[in-house]
């Protein structure tokens, strides 16, 4: 089914906006803890400065939205597009859950469990995106790499702060 240009433009805006909104909501948990609890944690030597995280996540959310749009523009009536969208939305929800658990609940161990599951969900999303758009998969590669790095960072914070 061919979508009209205005519908495609609105779909594009929605696909970019939803991950950014989810990211903004997650950042509210982060910002509440970043100047207090998070400062008290021991961090590994490779931990980036705090100011890096906002721009990186913003770019990753935009790439996620663009990837999702590349999938959706093939037509939501296609079964493969519906399945890929379910996996995408599931991983996006778990992405938000990590901020809630790690920063909101101040649980480093819980955050580690959530982010480990997130990696699996990103891989499953990439697998299902591949059925529709290979370019969409490539757009998720930076997200996967950053999440693997964040998992390592979360794991090292857990090791360095065993009582959290």
Q: Name the overall outline.
A: elongated
Largest sheet properties: none
Low-confidence stretches: none
**H-E string:** HHHHHH
- Report how far apart the termini are: 52 Å
Total DSSP helices: 6
Helical fraction equals over 70%
Using only CA atoms, what is the Rg?
17 Å
Counted beta strands = 0
Percent of sequence in beta strands: under 5%
The SS-based structural class is mainly alpha
Mean pLDDT: 94
Note down, in words, how this protein is organized.
The structure is a single chain. This protein is an all-alpha fold and about 160 residues long. It contains 6 helices and no strands. It has helices at about 5-35, 35-40, 50-70, 80-105, 110-130, 135-160. It is elongated, with a radius of gyration of 17 Å. The chain starts with a helix and ends with a helix. The mean pLDDT is about 95.
Could you give the topology of this structure?
Elements: H1 5-34, H2 37-40, H3 50-72, H4 79-104, H5 108-130, H6 134-160
Helix pairs in contact: 1-3, 1-4, 3-6, 4-5, 5-6
Question: What attributes characterize this protein structure?
Answer:
single chain, mainly alpha, 6 helices, 81% helix, 0% strand
Summarize this, please?
The protein has six helices and no strands. The protein has 164 residues and is mostly helical.
């Amino acid at each position: 089914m061919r979508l009209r240009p205005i519908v495609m433009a609105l779909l594009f805006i929605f696909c970019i906006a939803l991950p950014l909104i989810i990211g903004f909501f997650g950042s509210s948990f982060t910002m509440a803890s970043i100047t207090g609890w998070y400062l008290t944690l021991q961090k590994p030597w490779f931990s980036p400065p705090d100011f890096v995280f906002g721009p990186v996540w913003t770019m990753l959310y935009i790439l996620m939205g663009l990837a999702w749009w590349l999938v959706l523009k093939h037509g939501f009536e296609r079964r493969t597009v519906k399945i890929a969208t379910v996996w995408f939305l599931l991983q996006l929800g778990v992405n938000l859950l990590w901020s809630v658990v790690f920063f909101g609940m101040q649980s480093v161990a819980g955050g580690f469990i959530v982010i480990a599951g997130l990696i699996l969900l990103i891989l499953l999303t990439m697998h299902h995106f591949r059925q529709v758009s290979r370019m969409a998969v490539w757009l998720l590669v930076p997200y996967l790499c950053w999440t693997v790095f964040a998992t390592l960072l979360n794991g090292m914070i857990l090791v360095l702060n065993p009582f959290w």
